Amino acid sequence: MLHYDMPLYRPPSEGNNLIIQATLGCSFNQCSFCSMYKSKAYVARPLDQVFSDIDRAAASWPEAHRIFLADGDALALPADQLLKILQKLQQTFPRLTRVSCYATPSNILRKSPEELALLRANRLTLLYLGIETGDHDLLKKITKGATQRSIKEALHKAHESQLKVSATVILGLGGKQYWEQHIDGTLEILNNAPLTYLSTLQLFLDPEVVQEFAQKYREPFQPQEDIAILHEQQRLIAGFNPPQPVIFRSNHASNALALAGNLPKDRERLLMQIDRVLQGEGGMRPWHMRRL
After folding, report:
1. What is the tens place of the pLDDT at every residue in 187-245?
2. How far is Cα 187 from Cα 290, in angstroms, rounded to an integer?
3. Is residue 5 part of a domain?
4. Helix (H, G, I), strand (E, B) or coil at 260
5. Per-residue pLDDT for 89 more than 90?
6. What is the reported pLDDT for 4?
7. Which domain holds residue 275?
8. Residue 120: its pLDDT value, please?
9. What's the pTM value of the predicted model, to 2 decimals?
C-alpha cells in the first residue's frame, strides 16, 4: 500500500483511518517534553509525491472516508498547497467525510479567517492541538512556543471558522512544585475558549529528551506520583466550566486512570470515579500496560 517515512504518529482516534503524509517532521520541534520528531527534519513533501501516495492508497482502500494528514503539523503548509491536497482527496475518495491533522497555535494564527473557512469547506474539519498547560511560566519552561493568550486566540479563531478542535493537556507537567498553577492556568484557557474534545495524557519523558527537558526547565524537576496525578485530574475536572459542552477522555495509554464522559454534565460521576480510586476501591492501570 504505502511506504511511510518513519516514525509515524497519529492520535489514538485516528487508528482506523487512512494516513497520508503531507509533511515530514514538525515545523517547530522544540517542545522539551516531546521526542516524536527529533530524528526528522521538517519538510513539506512535494505535491506530486503526496498525490502519488493518495492514488496508491485509493487503489487498495477506495472506500476510505476519514483521512489524517501527517506528520507533526500539516497545517504549517501554505493554505493554497493544503487546499490542493484536500481537493485531490475529495476527487479520489468519493466517500470522504473528514480530514484532520495536528496543528499548533501559531499555525492557526498564521492562517486568515478566509483561509481557514476555505479549508473547512474542503473537508478539513478537525484539528488536534496540544495545549499541554496554560501556565505562563511552564509554557516557557517546556519551550512550547505559545502563550496562554496565543492558545486562547487560536482556539477562538478555529471555532469561528467552524473547525472542531481536539485538545490535549499533560498531567504531571508542573511536577510537585507547580502542579496547582499548572492546573489553574490550564483552566484559565479551558474555561474561556471553545473546544469539542479534551483529552489528558500523563507526562512520560522518553530517555532521549530527559536531558533537554531538565536543561530547559532550569531547576530540578520533581515528578508526580500516580496519586498526585489523580489529584491533578480531580482539580481539573472540578474546575472545568467550558463555554460549550466538551467530550472528555483520559483513555490514552499513558494515563494511570481511564475516564470518559461529557463535561460539565458528567462531572460528578467522573469525580466519584477518581475518589473511589483514591480511597483504594478501584485499580489504576498497571505500569506495564502504559506507553506513549
Report:
1. 999 999 999 999 999 999 999 999 999 999 999 999 999 999 999 999 999 999 999 99
2. 26
3. no
4. strand
5. yes
6. 96
7. 12-289
8. 98
9. 0.96
| Number of residues in the chain | 292
* pLDDT, tens digit, 9 for 90 and up, residues 44-68: 999 999 999 999 999 999 999 999 9
Say if residues 123 and 96 touch (Cβ distance below 8 Å).
yes
The count of domains in the chain is 1
Q: Is residue 7 part of a domain?
A: no
Distance between start and end Cα atoms, the chain: 26
Which residues, including other chains, have CB under 8 Å from residue 205's CB and lie 6 or more apart? 33, 35, 213
Joined grid coordinates for residue 150: 496565543
Whole-number pLDDT of residue 287: 63
CATH number (domain holding residue 164): 3.20.20.70
For the stretch 44-47, contacts whose Cβ atoms lie closer than 8 Å and that sit 24 or more positions apart, written own/partner, are 44/76, 44/77, 44/81, 45/21, 47/81, 47/84, 47/85
For residue 225, give the DSSP letter: P
Give all strands (DSSP E) within the chain, no chain letters: 18-21, 23-24, 43-44, 66-70, 98-103, 124-132, 164-171, 197-202, 246-249, 260-263
The verdict on residue 157 lying in a domain is yes
In a domain, residue 248? The reply is: yes
Q: How far apart are CA 82 and CA 280, in angstroms?
A: 50
In the chain, the percentage of residues whose pLDDT exceeds 70 is 97
